[in-house]
Design brief:
The complex is a heterodimer. By secondary structure, chain A is of the alpha+beta class. Chain A has two domains: 234 residues, Rossmann fold (3-Layer(aba) Sandwich), CATH 3.40.50.300; 112 residues, RNA polymerase II/Efflux pump adaptor protein, barrel-sandwich hybrid domain (OB fold (Dihydrolipoamide Acetyltransferase, E2P)), CATH 2.40.50.100. Helix content of chain A is 25%, strand content 39%. In chain A, the strands form four sheets. Chain A has a six-stranded mixed beta sheet with strand order 7-8-9-3-10-11, with helices on both faces. A five-stranded antiparallel beta sheet of chain A has the order 2-1-4-5-6, covered by helices on one side. In chain A, helix 2 crosses helix 3 and helix 2 runs parallel beside helix 4. Chain A is elongated and about 80 Å long. In chain A, 41% of the residues are buried. By secondary structure, chain B is mainly alpha-helical. Chain B has a single domain, classed as Orthogonal Bundle (MetI-like fold), CATH 1.10.3720.10. In chain B, helix 7 packs across helix 9. Classes of the chains: A alpha+beta, B mainly alpha. At the A-B interface, strand 7 and helix 2 of A face helix 8 and helix 9 of B.
Chain lengths: 357, 263
């Protein structure tokens, strides 16, 4: 990352009603940045700002050294001059144009002649594997095909920046994995920078190099995927990757979390986060004795079956989620509202400094 | 639902039936008076043929003018926000409720040879609007254009503007977006507005006769011919009325999905 030149540099501040978006986003050329966040976090607003569909109130957006939006300097480049391709959530293919004409729209708008634009469009159609649908109308396409046409249409303008707004959200689960794989191949071949807005962590894991997590209009965590997933810094991120996140104060091998004290394997001092994988939380009917483990009494608030595992949500001294096998669940005869003992080995608690955000 | 309450009151049914009769009887009366064997002959007399031709020319020209000027006007009303927009909309829609004869008088006062604008047009370009086909076209445009404008304005308001935004991100300038995305997506609405406008223009009487006069071959359109023929040649009047009735029915059927199903 360090050796790459920054391509997209956006310092975005804008507000609408009570909502305020204040986000810094940098992306090296050729990288794929996933912007992850719950609904209403400001992801789509960010995308609209980058595309030039919403003007900044303060801050600056620059792409490959060119300033696109800078209210202080009175600069605003309209969307049609930005060289930014956008794939919207529901694709928004032009219904009155054929698939080929949809893709040729961008080249045509750039002043390329009809025949040449169609040639470009045909080659893109081939790249997304839909040459046989060239004369179809968008409403005749399946969701996955429409997504590929929308991608081809955006890429056919040869953009420096590609924006994808929830590119897989409109698809059913069955086609989503296929389209995601297809999208990954195209993003790898794309020389420009990609910003991908999604609320599905799997999209980020498969498609992106970097993650920026936005919550309530602010960046709550940003960095390479491995770093973000191994060291979540907010409840939202922890929930996304399916782990338990605790906040506490470490003192040597002791971690003080609300009213509880946990024994941890490594030595830490000061404010710290700790993650505990749900599968590392063991449940017992009676207080386990004789082992140097962390254990506490908790009440079961819900039990869900997740594939081959049972997910047990606990409330008590520590609010955590445990995942056990259906066999173990049956043996323990767990019911919602029951009190159980939860136990975690010190080595299963992953502790890291809260320090830098 | 209470079964006892489902049957409508007798008085309401009776009044409703009377209303239906009121609408139906004139139509039946008109159809009864048509001499079907002579219909073709009645419609091909030189006067009738001339009136039909003139009506087509004037009404289609009115539609063309309404579309050419009404589309940008509708765009302004739908898309831009300026003080006095409600006032402007009211002004544009006024001809829909204004008695056509008043419209004719108003047009006279603006465009007659003695008015400043009409006089200037005549002196500078030799264009006379009163008692000419141009006058008939102008009168028809005046009363029918609002139908186009309100339909087009509604269309501009209801289309999904994100398609225009996509087009912009694909590098299309505003005029290209308008021509290649906006217009095609509102084309069905514009067509419906044009049909409605045409029907109104075709039936225009009051403003035409007041402003453009009743000059055979120049301003004597179908409705004017019907009015004139009613005293001298009743059969032709009825035949021409039948033509207008059939056209109205066709328009109604063509627009049924737009207008009837919503009621």
């Amino acid at each position: 990352m360090a050796q790459s030149v920054v391509s997209l540099d956006a310092d975005v501040a804008t507000s609408a009603g009570n909502f305020e978006l204040s986000v810094r986003l940098c992306a090296p050329a050729g990288s794929v940045v996933a912007v992850l966040g719950p609904n209403g976090a400001g992801k789509s607003t960010l995308l609209r700002v980058l595309a030039g569909l919403t003007a900044l109130q303060a801050g600056i957006v620059s792409l490959d050294g060119h300033i696109l939006d800078d209210p202080a300097a009175g600069i605003f480049v309209p969307p049609e001059q930005r060289g930014v391709g956008v794939v919207f959530q529901d694709y928004l293919l032009f219904d009155h144009l054929s698939v080929l004409e949809n893709i040729a729209f961008g080249p045509r708008s750039a002043g390329i002649g009809k025949a040449a634009a169609r040639t470009i469009a045909a080659s893109w159609l081939e790249r997304v594997g839909l040459s046989d649908r060239s004369s179809a109308k968008p409403r005749q396409l399946s969701g996955g095909q429409a997504q590929r046409v929308a991608l081809a249409r955006a890429l056919a303008t040869d953009p420096q920046l590609l924006l994808l707004d929830e590119p897989l959200a409109a698809l059913d689960v069955g086609t989503r994995a296929d389209v995601r794989r297809h999208l990954r191949r195209h993003l790898q071949q794309f020389a420009g920078t990609t910003v991908l807005v999604t609320h599905d962590p799997l999209d980020a894991l498969v498609l992106a190099d970097q993650i920026v997590v936005i919550e309530a209009g602010r960046v709550s965590q940003a960095g390479p995927i491995a770093e973000v997933t191994s060291r979540p810094r907010s409840a939202y991120v922890a929930q996304l990757i399916g782990t338990n996140l605790l906040r506490g104060e470490a003192n040597g091998h002791d971690l003080h979390v609300t009213e509880a004290h946990l024994t941890i394997a490594d030595h830490h001092v000061g404010p710290a986060f700790a993650t505990i994988s749900p599968s590392a939380v063991a449940l017992h009917r009676h207080a386990p004795s004789g082992s140097p483990r962390n254990q506490w009494l908790a009440k079961i608030t819900s039990i869900d079956l997740l594939g081959d595992r049972v997910r047990v949500t606990l409330a008590g001294t520590l609010d955590v989620v445990a995942e056990i096998t259906p066999g173990a669940a049956a043996e323990l005869d767990l019911r919602e509202g029951d009190d159980v003992w939860a136990a975690v080995k010190a080595t299963e608690i992953n502790v890291y400094d809260m320090g830098r955000a | 639902m209470n079964r006892a309450r489902q049957r409508p009151p007798v008085a309401v049914v009776a009044a409703a039936l009377l209303a239906v009769g009121f609408f139906t009887l004139p139509l039946v009366g008109l159809l009864q008076q048509v001499t079907w064997s002579n219909l073709a002959a009645d419609l091909t007399t030189p006067e009738a043929a001339e009136a039909i031709r003139l009506s087509l020319v004037c009404s289609l020209a009115a539609v063309a003018l309404a579309a050419a000027f009404g589309t940008p006007l509708a765009w302004f009303l739908a898309r831009s926000d300026f003080p006095g927009r409600p006032l402007l909309r009211g002004l544009v829609l006024l001809p829909m409720v204004l008695p056509p004869v008043v419209g004719g008088v108003a047009l006279l006062s603006a465009f007659s040879l003695r008015s400043p604008v009409g006089g200037w047009l005549n002196n500078a370009f030799g264009i006379q609007l009163t008692f000419t086909t141009w006058g008939a076209i102008l009168a028809e445009t005046f009363v029918s254009m609002p139908f186009f404008v309100i339909t087009a304005e509604a269309a501009f308001r209801t289309i999904d503007r994100r398609y225009e935004q996509v087009a912009a991100t694909l590098g299309a300038r505003r005029t290209t977006v308008f021509r290649r995305v906006t217009l095609p997506s509102i084309a069905p609405s514009l067509a419906a507005g044009a049909v409605l406008t045409w029907a109104r223009a075709l039936g225009e009487f009051g403003a035409t006769i007041t402003f453009a006069g009743n000059v055979a071959g120049r301003t004597r359109t179908l409705p004017l011919s019907v009015y004139l023929a009613l005293e001298a040649d009743r059969q032709t009047a009825i035949a021409l009325s039948l033509v207008l009735l059939v056209i109205s029915l066709v328009v109604l059927v063509a627009l049924r999905d737009r207008w009837l199903s919503r009621l």
